[in-house]
Amino acid sequence: MKKYNIALLLASVLLVSCGKKTKRELALKDQQIEQLEEQLDHLKNTEASLLDRLSDLSVINKTGAESIQKSLESINQQYSFIENLNTKIHEKDSINLALVMNLKRSLSDINDDDVQVEVKGGVVYVSISDKMLFRSGSSNLTSSAKNVLGKLASIINDHQDLNILVEGHTDNVPINNDCMVDNWDLSVKRATSVVRSLQQEYFVDPERMTAGGRSEYLPKSDNNSPAGRSENRRTEIIITPKLDQFFKLLETPKLAG
Q1: pTM for this one?
Q2: pLDDT tens, 145-189?
Q3: 136-144: Cβ within 8 A, 24+ apart
Q4: CATH number of the structural domain spanning residue 169
Q5: Which of 94, 120, 167, 242 has the highest local Cβ count within 10 Å?
Q6: Number of domains the chain contains
Q7: Residue 71 belongs to what domain range?
């Protein structure tokens, strides 16, 4: 009986000891579970934060991509415009070159001192001395003028896409007679005589022509010598692109953005 009591006591001690150990282990496991749950909550919060940042980043990237796309489209349009402008300029230069060659060939039998053909500022200038066209102090065309103007009109009529500006120029010697008030008057009347002849005798479209006088105020040479004054007395026929086409060429396209 005594041995039985001792065994029972030992069993009770063991149960108590095992129970305490189990409780400690359970408490430890509960603590570990609690820590894991905290870590899981932290991971969930981190994931949500990352998703929010990724969402914001995707919006920024989309907006940035659209901005870059618009910038590229704008650059491409500008590049296309510049390329087109360069092409048009080259075409105009080629037309001017062909025009100058044709004019010089047509006027080859006339003294170079009396008729000069050149390109200035992208337009063609034909400068004709006054002695080829007019008598001194007069705006009436001479017979030799018909030869020059007829050859010019033939070339001009072959280029319907160009306009003609006729400018009269004088030296600085004052003029005052029954027909002319001053050098302004003389320069303008000489220009209108040339325009009228080109229209009526050589059928140049009057809508393409403009007549103007510059008097003595745009000299080519010094007026202090007879040679200089002779060079300044001239009529210039300036062949230019039609203004509406010229301005259309320079129009800037509407750019994206």
Answers
A1: 0.65
A2: 989 999 999 999 998 888 999 999 999 999 978 889 999 999 999
A3: 137/175, 137/177, 137/180, 137/186, 138/179, 139/179, 139/180, 139/186, 139/189, 139/190, 139/192, 139/193, 140/193, 141/193, 141/194, 141/197
A4: 3.30.1330.60
A5: 167
A6: 1
A7: 1-257
